[in-house]
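so ive been stuck on this for like two days lol. basically i have the seq below and the ligand is zinc ion, smiles is in there too. i just want the complex predicted, nothing fancy, no docking runs or whatever. if the output looks off dont worry ill sanity check it later, just need somthing to start from for the group meeting slides
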Amino acid sequence: MPNLKFLLIPLIFSFTASAQHSISYIANEGIFIQSENKSILIDAIFDNYYETYASPSEQTIQYLNAKEHPYQIVDLLLVTHAHLDHFNPEMVSKFLKSHRETELVCPKQAVDSIVKTQENMELLIPRLNGVEPKAEWNALFLKGVSVHTAYVRHGGKQNYDVDNQIYLINVDGKKILHLGDAEMDPAHFAQLHLSKPPIDVALIPYWFLAYPPGIDIVKNQIKPNKLVAIHYPKVGDPKTLEKIRDNFPNAVVFMKEGEMVNF
Ligand SMILES: [Zn+2]
């Protein structure tokens, strides 16, 4: 019988040596997640309809649609909600026609707006995974990625009719949370038990990191290992930024396309 001790060592190493993951910034709340085996976009395909917030550069959109490096294969495109600074139905439709491998997960509302964009939708429809607004976790398993999604109301009364889904995904062993434009109310998050088990990276609208209800949600309910602030405006918001630096000195605030965190 072979010596078990020596057989076990490589086995343990293969489980503990985790591959490198990265998240790179596209614009507003748009990000690109890469691991050894997976590539995922969230809220990354839209134009400059809202001038207050950054939009993907023309070159990025061109690279995305032409399947240029690093976008040769995109396993998933997740969309938090159908606001034009997160999602453009015509552009998403064009992207999905080029990327026949990509599964889309988004609120049912966003699927409806894609279907309205044109008539020949047969190729696309099987890959449009529309989610109904339910304030509890809904688990999907697509392209080898576990995707948990839950409805959390969009902030601001004028936006309550736009369904906002948050995403908690497990990408090659790392847990990544994206809140979209969730309302900054701790009551929405209580039943979601976000921090069990711990979250590796949380992508959160930057105002959560500066004001008490949001700080409470991040510190007591989300408790991520790494914190990345998104939705920072083009003109800047230095007062809020100062508060973020005081409350979360280790937080990364995404501001420029191409910024990256590794974990
Ligand atoms: Zn929004």
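The first strand starts at residue 22 and ends at 27. The pocket of zinc ion is lined by residues 81, 83, 154, 159, 181 (CB under 6 Å).
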